[in-house]
């Protein structure tokens, strides 16, 4: 096993995630050997049981989640758009799947679209606004950003965006759209998606293009 970099996450989660990744990649390259497949499936089963013991999720759900992963295990990717209006306010949307909590517009990156194209699409779909991406502000590793624990390794690419037009429009994913000054960010953020410190930092990045990209 490779060395696992330490994070603020509980060690049961870090190790369970590592075991799942080993099992997934092993099954992808098992070359049809029933003995190898049996061993990697056993490792995956251990990982799912560890995850269930340390979380509130039922073991069968986690087992199904892990079994659905195919190919070499790599971090998942999400995109977020930090959109600012002429008054210097940032765009936030209420996330339906997280009980209407606020977040930067964005989501999982879709295949066949570049990170910039994904960001433009997500902002338009979740808010109705048309934007232009002006710079990559941050590449965050979920495990190093104090988000609530998650089963998979995940990177978030956050882009500063310029507002071009559009009409505020909710979607099946969002229930409300709002613009907020730096000192008026809502407390009820969707912390699995974005943190207060991350939003606060985006005001600095929007104001100062010379700041280097924040990379974990």
TrEMBL record:
Q: Which cofactor does it need?
A: Mg(2+)
Q: Could you tell me which species this protein originates from?
A: Gluconacetobacter entanii
A single Gene Ontology molecular function, please? Answer: hydrolase activity
Q: What is this protein called?
A: NUDIX hydrolase N-terminal domain-containing protein
**One Pfam match:** NUDIX
Sorted alphabetically, which InterPro entries does this protein's record hold?
NUDIX_hydrolase-like_dom_sf (IPR015797), NUDIX_hydrolase_dom (IPR000086), UDP-X_N (IPR059176)
Q: Which UniProt keywords apply?
A: Hydrolase
**Which superkingdom heads the taxonomic lineage of this protein's source?**
Bacteria
- Keyword Repressor attributed: no
Q: Which residues form the Nudix hydrolase domain?
A: 74-202
Q: Can the keyword Secreted be found in this entry's annotation?
A: no
């Amino acid at each position: 096993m490779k060395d696992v970099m330490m994070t603020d996450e509980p060690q049961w989660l870090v190790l369970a995630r590592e075991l799942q990744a080993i099992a997934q990649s092993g099954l992808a390259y098992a070359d049809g050997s029933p003995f190898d497949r049996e061993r990697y499936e056993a490792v995956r089963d251990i990982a799912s049981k560890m995850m269930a013991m340390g979380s509130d999720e039922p073991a069968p759900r986690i087992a199904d989640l892990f079994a659905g992963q195919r190919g070499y295990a790599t971090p998942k990717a999400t995109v977020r758009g930090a959109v600012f209006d002429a008054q210097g306010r940032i765009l936030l949307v209420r996330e339906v799947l997280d009980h209407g909590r606020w977040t930067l517009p964005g989501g999982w990156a879709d295949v066949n679209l570049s990170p910039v194209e994904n960001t433009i699409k997500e902002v338009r779909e979740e808010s109705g606004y048309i934007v232009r991406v002006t710079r990559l502000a941050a590449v965050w590793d979920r495990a190093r950003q104090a988000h609530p624990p998650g089963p998979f390794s995940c990177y978030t690419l956050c882009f500063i965006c310029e507002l071009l037009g559009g009409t505020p429009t909710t979607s099946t994913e969002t229930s409300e759209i709002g613009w907020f000054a730096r000192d008026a960010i809502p407390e009820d953020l969707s912390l699995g998606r974005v943190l207060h410190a991350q939003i606060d930092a985006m005001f600095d990045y929007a104001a100062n293009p010379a700041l280097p990209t924040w990379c974990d």
